[in-house]
Structure formats: C-alpha cells, structure tokens
C-alpha cells in the first residue's frame, strides 16, 4: 500500500513535470511575443516590458524561475490583464467552471447509468433499442450543436429559460444539458455492455438460485461489478468535460476558466496559458488517482498496484 | 417412500439461429425423500437443462418449458408465478453449480452472500442470520468460520469455495438440493472430500439430492439411484446396484465400459463410437440406434416404450421385446 | 398428454415382426449434414449486412464521399466567391443551401467542409493506426522490460489532457490542416497502441505462434504474418471510431477559431460562424453544418458498432 502510494506519487509528479516542461517550451516556440500585437508601443517600451517580465533572459533561466515559483504555488502575473495575477484569474474562473463541470458530471453519470441499466435489463427489447439509438445520437452531436439546438428550442422558440451568464440555477440548466449529453451517452453505452456481460456471469445465476428479487440482483450483485469500466472512464471523461467547458462557456457567455483560457491563447498571454494548463493537469491527474482508489474500493481483488487471483 | 419431487414428461426447447433445439424430450422421474438420485450422461444430453428447469432458471428467451409438469409440494413448478418461484428457490429447492471459482460474487464478502439468502427467506435478526451462517460454515467444514465470514471469495481455495457454495445452498434447510457437476472443476483429492461432505450432510439434514454428473466414479460413491440420460431422454433408471451390475440399455453398458475400472481384472476400456444425434431434428426412433451395436430396423422407426424390470429398474430399449431376444439368441 | 405419449411410443404388439432384424447400415445417413462454413470475413460481411442501421450509415458515408468530390463542381459558385449583395439569402434555386454573411454559397462550402472533415478524420486515423500498431505491436510482442518501460511512457502520456495538448500545438504551429492532423495524431495513437498490445499479449502464446517461433521465423515476419491478421477485428473497430473522434476534434477546434483558416472552411468553422444566426433567424447557416457534423459522426459510430458485432459475434451486444 505505502510503496504503491509512493510509486504512484512519483509517476504523478513526473507526468506533471512533463506537462509543465512541454507547455513551457512549446509556448516559447510560438513566433512573436505578447507585445507584438500592440502597435502603439515602440521598441524601447517593448524591451522594457520584456525585461519586466524576464522575457529577455535565456529560456532555461526563465524555465528555472517558473519552476521555482510553481513550488510556492505562484503562477505569476498575467501579462495582458496586468492588474491580475494568474492565481487571481483562476480563483475567479474556477468556481464557475467547477460548478458547471460538477453538475454536468453528476447529471451524466446518474442518467447514463440508469439508461444503461434499463437497456441491459431489456436486452434486445424496445427500450434497449431506443436507449441505444438515443445514445449513439448523443455521442454524435457535438456539444456546441447541442447547445445551439437547446437555445433555439428553449430560449428562442419557446422562451422559458435564460441563455447567457451564470446568475441563477435556471441559467445553469441549458449549459449543463448541452455539456452532459455526450458523456451521458458514452456512460450509458458502456454501462449497458458491461451490465449485459455481468448478468451472464455464474454468480448472477447463483444469486437467482438463492431466490433474490431482480431488483436486489441488479443493484446489489450486478451493478457494482458492471461499473468497473465506467469508473475507468470517469477520469478521461472528467477531462473532456473540463475542456468541453471552453466551448459551452463561449456560447453561453459564462465567466468561467474556459473563457480566460481561450482569450489567453489568442493574446499569447504566456503565464495564463501556462497556469491554466498546469492547473487543469493537476485536476486531471488527481481525478485519475481517485479513479484508481475507487477501483480498489469497488473490487476487493485489486490490491492497489497489482491484481491477485 | 415419500416422493418430494415428481417430474412428468418434461419437454424443454431453445430457440436458436438454426432452429429449435429440443434439449429435453419427455423426461420423467421421481425423487424420494432423503435419497441421492444421480442423473448421468455425456455433455449436451440435457441433464443440466433438466435441473435448471426444475429451478426455472432456464434463460427465457431463448429457452422455454414446452410441456410436462414438475410437482413439488402439490404445486406444479412449471405453472407457479415468478414471485412464488422466488420463494421456493433457495428455501425449498437449492442449487449448486459446477465452477466454484465463478459461482461466488467477487465483490461481496462470503458472509454477506450466505446471510442474504437467509434474510431473503426467513424473518430473522441480523445477529441470528449471522449465527446461522457461522453454524453452516462450520457444518461444511470451514475452520474458524466467524473470521472467514468477513473475507472475499478470492481469499479461498477452490475446494473451500465449493464448501461455501454448498453452505449457501443449505442454509435455509431446503428439501431438495440440485448439484450440477459439483466436483468436476476440483482436484481429485478435493473431489473425494466434497463427496464425503455430501454424504455427511444428507445424514444430518435428510435433504434429497439430485446429482448431475458425467462422472461414473462420483456416481458410484454417492448415488442411491441412477438415471441415465441420452439425447434429451432418460433411457434407463435403476438403483446403483442395478445400473452398475445389471445394466440393460446398450448405452448404459457402453458408458460403464468406457470407465477405467480397477476392480475387474482384464477389463478393457471401450469407447462408444460416433456422436450423439443433432437435437434440431432428433430421430423418430431410438436416438442411440446410430451408435448401437445391436440396432435393429425397429430402433430407427419407433422409440421403444418403457420396460419395467423391478420396482426401481426401468429401461427404454427394443432389446427387451421378446422378438428381439429371440433374434439375439439366434444370432449367437 | 396421454395422447402425445401414444403417438411417440406404439404398443409393442402393433409393431410388425419383420422390423426385428439387424439394422441395415447405410453409411451416408450417419454422416451429419454440416452447414457450409463461411470464411471469417464473408461471415462478418453477412452479419454486417443484416444490421440495417450500420448499412444505412455505410450508405451515407459513401454518399458523403461522392458529394465531397463532386459537390463543389455541381454548383456554379466557388468556395471563396463573395457576393456582398447576396448576404444571408435563404435556400433557393440559385443558392441551394442559402448564403452566409459574406454572401458565399453554403452548398459549395458544406461539401468543401466535408472534404476537410473526411480528410482530417481518415488521415488522423491512419496515422494513429500506423504509430499505434508499431508501438503496441513491439511492446506486446517483446514483453518483459521493454513492454514495462513502453507502457509506463504510455501511462504518463495518457495523463496529459488531450485537448490541451492539441490546443497548445495549434497555437505553436499556427492554425492549419497539417497542424490539426499532427496535433490529433500526436495524442490519438495511445488508445490504438493499448488495444494492439492487449491483442498481441493475448494471442502471442497461441500454439501457431510458438510453432513458427520454433522454426526460427523472424520477429517482424511473425508480427506481420501471424499476429496482425488475428488482431484485426478490434483494430478495425478502433479505426472506425477514431475517424469520428478526429472529425469531432477538428470541429471543436475550428469552432474555437483554432482550426482551418478562411477562405477555406470546415463544418466546425461554419457552425461557429452560424452561431449568431439563431438570434437573426438565418437558420440555414447553422442547420446545414450542424446536421452534417452530427450525421457523419452518427454514421461512423453505427458502422463502427456494426463492425464490432460483425467481427466478434461472441461479444454480440
């Protein structure tokens, strides 16, 4: 357990370091500096700005300095929005993005699992067929198309819901629905196929031979085992929901992290791009770690790190 | 002797891609109180389907009980509702399956898997259920049962797991226990222990056992009566003594000759040539005729009716007909 | 029930005596009729043909490919042709899918977008396939330490947020078709490598592989001749599912303004352009690209699902 934890921590740190390094050097390979677009500034001013942000120093010095400041959890100042630090921007954007992401994940997981279970129980029946057609549709329609369809329906044709900003729970409904459809469809398909596989297992027959009711068999004996592949997927899914928020935040004018990220890319705001990437990576890596932990809890055969039997 | 279970002319079919497989074609037998009835036959002969039909565990679709009756406590199990059947499963009739490695849920403690069966059928407190589970594990020979209740299936060996499966099946004191190839997946030494356990338990609880197996060695050790199945039909039934020492059906004789025996000097192993018939379109006559060395024209045309040789011993074979006996005598 | 019994087993007395003679054996009857066995691929194709949804998807993809080639030629307009007097025209005889805010013909642009989307999807899937199969094949076949190290690397790469990497690469290399493909393949091969490795591990100990090993066959030849043909099923499915995810990623990037640049276009970019049309009522500017993205994704997904069922009937879902 302990040695596994240490190994895991080391591999997480290596991943993180790779991401930071990759991002750092990729970004500085971008032609042009953050100030080239400002036409009004002359060369002297530009050089002053560069030296203020240490952009005139050799790359490895900047890299070292950045790593050092990261250790103190300081992501540096924003170049474009000079009154803010990157920490400020993340501090403002993240609560909103997190709220959006959390509810999306919750909606997607709960409805996806229910849909998948229902389809598996009526394997090859009409419910199965409908649910799976719906699921393939859900996977096929990109979130931005979904978002526009929802806006068209519920804000323009039949205006019952607001579309822009992030003011009340009512404002959240459409963005969450738009973002949750895809992941929900993926979870539903996966739950269904693994549920069908589990329901064919010998231990399910044993449970039936004990006289247990179908409800007990499904929820106590089958679901837990069927959820393993779904749990595996959650890490990657959380990441895709995180990035999915970029688009949704753009469409619904939600003041979350995605908005700052896209802006920072267009404006070559290095520290913000770096900071956001690092932050997202940390979130993702932690998610993947939690998935591993959840694995061990769901399946007692898996002693963290290795499989038995 | 009291009959606890009566199966009458049971027909079970499976719908598949290629058509309807008639897996069980008119099986009739009784199970007496406290006895062990072995159903013997090669794989695909319908013995497992018969046992799962009694529990109504045939996956439907594609399988279904076409006709016949299964009488248990004045009820026809082919007709009772599913909720009613659930009350019978595990409480009155229990079943254990072939592979103990897959029969237990890997993510639930063995204790919980035993206790949930008790609580499904009996109004008892959690503590009482736990005590019953501990007693049961003790009975099937699992050391320090209290501690092992908290463990998961993967922490047990194959033989131990089969003991747990047996404990699980017996914990509600059922009247009938159906064991489908209970020792096939186990090592030979463990097999002997498990068979010993069956005898021991039957003595203590008086449970009636239907033992499904293809292994005549197992049958010889525990069965009181034996039913030999071939191509969806029971071709011969009799007491253990009758089947082993006075087999009448050529298939039964063939089976016995294909088992290595140490007790008879100079006995050769003789395999039965050919393979069982296709159950998509079973032959009109005796299904064994194609492989039978004594086959006559009549065997291909008409299925033989039952001949009663003693109160227990019955056989479906044309060789029992007087005319056939004359023919055989003339040929020798 | 009594009746049934009678039909099956006659009373012995009514059976004629002459039937009691040794059976006249005719060999032909004993040999059971065996269903003619189809080859694996023929059998798979037969199963696929039965799947109506998958066949419809396949048909749509053929249609799409044909239209991507000839679509822009049918229309009198060209992809970059702007006509500011004809802004935001609804679909008509002249402009079949209407025009956009710069007066460009939507019909031509939709098929032009199809070219880009299909090209991106197919090339990215191909690149994934080649990298993934080499990496996964070597890792699985070599096993041991090599496998361990190669899989560690994959594990770490798997931890990278995929779209972030793509976005960063787009920023660095500048938007464009080549960049999109490089960016997509740089991250996309990991899934393929994992699948190939799993397949190889599963079958490399099969006897026929061991047999060719004992004959001293070279590693490369064993991989090519023995392993690949037997691992194709899941790999083909993975390819069919990579294409839509590449198309999806391209649409996503173009939507964010990081993809194809004007005057060229893709469906994602057109959808992004058309977003404002919800409020102005120019529905055709959004509906056509949105429909084609979704329909193409749907088609690839159902074909992929159909192939999965057809190629591995044991896993029939």
From TrEMBL, chain A:
The chain crosses the membrane at residues 12-30, 100-122, 129-152, 172-191, 226-248, 278-298. Its main location: membrane. Gene3D superfamilies: MetI-like. Keywords: Cell membrane, Membrane, Transmembrane, Transmembrane helix, Transport. SUPFAM superfamilies: MetI-like (SSF161098). It is found in: Cell membrane. Residues 94-295 form the ABC transmembrane type-1 domain. It is a multi-pass membrane protein. CDD domains: TM_PBP2. Belongs to the binding-protein-dependent transport system permease family. This is Dipeptide transport system permease protein. The lineage of its organism: Bacteria, Bacillati, Bacillota, Bacilli, Bacillales.
TrEMBL record, chain B:
Residues 5-256 form the ABC transporter domain. Belongs to the ABC transporter superfamily. Keywords: ATP-binding, Cell membrane, Membrane, Nucleotide-binding, Transport. It is a peripheral membrane protein. It comes from Peribacillus deserti. This is Dipeptide transport system ATP-binding protein. SMART domains: AAA (SM00382). The keyword rRNA-binding does not apply. It is found in: Cell membrane. GO terms for molecular function: ATP binding. PANTHER family: DIPEPTIDE TRANSPORT ATP-BINDING PROTEIN DPPD, OLIGOPEPTIDE TRANSPORT ATP-BINDING PROTEIN APPD. Pfam families: ABC_tran (PF00005), oligo_HPY (PF08352).
From TrEMBL, chain C:
It comes from the Bacteria. It holds the Pfam family OppC_N. Residues 114-304 form the ABC transmembrane type-1 domain. It is a multi-pass membrane protein. It is found in: Cell membrane. Coiled coil: none annotated. Keywords: Cell membrane, Membrane, Transmembrane, Transmembrane helix, Transport. The chain crosses the membrane at residues 53-74, 116-137, 149-171, 177-196, 235-260, 286-307. Belongs to the binding-protein-dependent transport system permease family. This is Dipeptide transport system permease protein. It comes from Peribacillus deserti.
């Amino acid at each position: 357990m302990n040695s596994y934890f240490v190994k895991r921590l080391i591999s997480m740190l290596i991943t993180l370091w790779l991401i930071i390094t990759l991002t750092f050097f990729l970004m500085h390979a971008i032609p042009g500096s953050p100030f080239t677009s400002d036409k009004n500034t002359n060369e002297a001013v530009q050089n002053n700005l560069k030296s203020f942000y240490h952009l005139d120093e050799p790359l490895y010095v900047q890299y070292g300095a950045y790593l050092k400041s990261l250790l103190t959890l300081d992501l540096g100042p924003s170049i474009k929005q000079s009154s803010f630090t990157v920490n400020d921007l993340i501090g403002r954007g993240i609560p909103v993005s997190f709220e959006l992401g959390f509810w999306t994940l919750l909606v997607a997981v709960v409805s996806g699992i229910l849909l998948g279970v229902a389809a598996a129980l009526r394997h090859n029946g009409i419910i199965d067929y409908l649910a799976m057609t719906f699921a393939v549709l859900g996977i096929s329609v990109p979130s931005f198309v979904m978002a526009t369809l929802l806006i068209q329906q519920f804000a323009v044709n039949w205006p019952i819901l607001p579309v822009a900003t992030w003011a009340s729970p009512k404002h959240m409904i459409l963005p969450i629905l738009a973002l949750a459809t895809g992941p929900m469809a993926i979870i539903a398909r996966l739950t269904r196929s693994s549920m069908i596989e589990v329901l064919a297992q010998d231990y399910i027959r044993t449970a039936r031979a004990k006289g247990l009711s179908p409800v007990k068999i499904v929820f106590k004996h089958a679901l837990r085992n069927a959820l393993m592949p779904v749990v595996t997927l959650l890490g990657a899914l959380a990441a895709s929901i995180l990035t999915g928020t970029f688009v949704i935040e753009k469409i619904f004018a939600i003041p979350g992290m995605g908005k700052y990220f896209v802006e920072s890319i267009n404006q070559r705001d290095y520290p913000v791009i770096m900071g956001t990437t690092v932050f997202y990576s940390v979130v993702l890596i932690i998610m993947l770690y939690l998935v591993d932990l959840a694995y061990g809890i769901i399946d007692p055969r898996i002693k963290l790190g290795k499989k038995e039997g | 002797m009291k009959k606890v279970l009566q199966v009458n002319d049971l027909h079970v079919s499976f719908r598949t891609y290629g058509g309807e497989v008639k897996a069980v074609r008119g099986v009739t037998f009784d199970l007496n109180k406290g006895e062990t009835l072995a159903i013997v036959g090669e794989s695909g002969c319908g013995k497992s389907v018969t046992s799962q039909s009694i529990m109504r565990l045939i996956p439907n679709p594609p399988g279904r009980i076409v006709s016949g009756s299964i009488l248990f406590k004045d009820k026809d199990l082919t007709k009772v509702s599913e909720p009613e059947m659930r009350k019978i499963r595990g409480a009155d009739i229990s079943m254990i399956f072939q592979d103990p490695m897959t029969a237990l849920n890997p993510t639930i403690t063995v204790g919980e898997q035993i206790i949930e069966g008790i609580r499904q059928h009996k109004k008892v407190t959690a503590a009482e259920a736990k005590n019953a589970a501990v007693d049961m594990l003790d009975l099937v020979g699992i050391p320090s049962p209290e501690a092992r209740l908290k463990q998961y299936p993967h922490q047990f060996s194959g033989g131990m797991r089969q003991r747990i499966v047996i404990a699980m099946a017996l914990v509600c004191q059922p009247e009938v226990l159906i064991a489908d190839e209970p020792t096939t997946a186990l090592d030979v030494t463990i097999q002997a222990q498990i068979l010993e356990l069956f005898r021991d338990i039957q003595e203590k609880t008086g449970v009636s056992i239907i033992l499904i197996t293809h292994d005549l060695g197992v049958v010889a050790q525990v069965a009181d009566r034996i039913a030999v199945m071939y191509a969806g039909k029971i071709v011969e039934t009799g007491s253990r003594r009758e089947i082993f020492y006075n087999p009448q059906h050529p298939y039964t004789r063939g089976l016995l000759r294909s088992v290595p025996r140490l007790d008879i000097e100079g006995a050769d192993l003789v395999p039965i040539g050919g393979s069982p018939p296709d159950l998509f379109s079973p032959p009109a006559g005796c299904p064994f005729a194609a492989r039978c060395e004594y086959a006559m024209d009549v065997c291909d045309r008409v299925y033989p009716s039952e001949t009663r040789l003693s109160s227990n011993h019955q056989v479906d074979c044309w060789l029992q007909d007087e005319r056939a006996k004359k023919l055989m005598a003339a040929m020798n | 029930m009594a009746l049934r019994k009678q039909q099956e087993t006659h009373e012995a007395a009514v059976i004629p005596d002459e039937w009691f003679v040794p059976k006249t054996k005719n060999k032909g009857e004993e040999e059971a009729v065996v269903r003619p066995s189809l080859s694996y691929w023929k059998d798979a194709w037969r199963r696929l043909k039965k799947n109506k949804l998958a066949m419809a998807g396949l048909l749509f993809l053929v249609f799409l490919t044909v239209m991507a080639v000839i679509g822009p030629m049918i229309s009198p307009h060209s992809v970059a042709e702007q006509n500011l007097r004809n802004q935001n025209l609804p679909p008509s005889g002249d402009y079949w899918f209407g025009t956009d805010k710069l007066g460009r013909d939507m019909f031509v642009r939709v098929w032009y977008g199809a070219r880009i989307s299909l090209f991106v999807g197919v090339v990215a899937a191909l690149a994934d396939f080649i990298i993934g199969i080499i990496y996964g094949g070597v890792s699985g076949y070599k096993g041991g330490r090599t496998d361990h190290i190669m899989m560690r690397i994959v594990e770490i790469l798997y931890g990278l947020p995929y779209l972030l990497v793509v976005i960063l690469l787009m920023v660095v290399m500048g938007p464009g078709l080549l960049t999109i493909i490089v960016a997509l393949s740089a991250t996309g091969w990991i899934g393929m490598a994992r699948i190939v490795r799993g397949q190889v591990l599963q079958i490399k100990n099969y006897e026929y592989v061991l047999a060719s090993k004992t004959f001293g066959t070279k590693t490369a030849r064993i991989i090519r001749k023995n392993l690949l043909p037997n691992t194709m099923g899941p790999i083909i499915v993975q390819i069919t599912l990579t294409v839509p995810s590449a198309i999806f990623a391209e649409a996503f990037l173009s939507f964010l303004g990081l993809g194809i640049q004007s005057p060229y276009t893709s469906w994602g970019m057109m959808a992004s352009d058309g977003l404002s049309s919800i409020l102005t009522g120019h529905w055709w500017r959004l509906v056509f690209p949105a429909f084609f993205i979704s329909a193409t994704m749907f088609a690839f997904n159902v074909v992929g699902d159909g192939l999965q069922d057809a190629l591995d009937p044991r896993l029939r879902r």
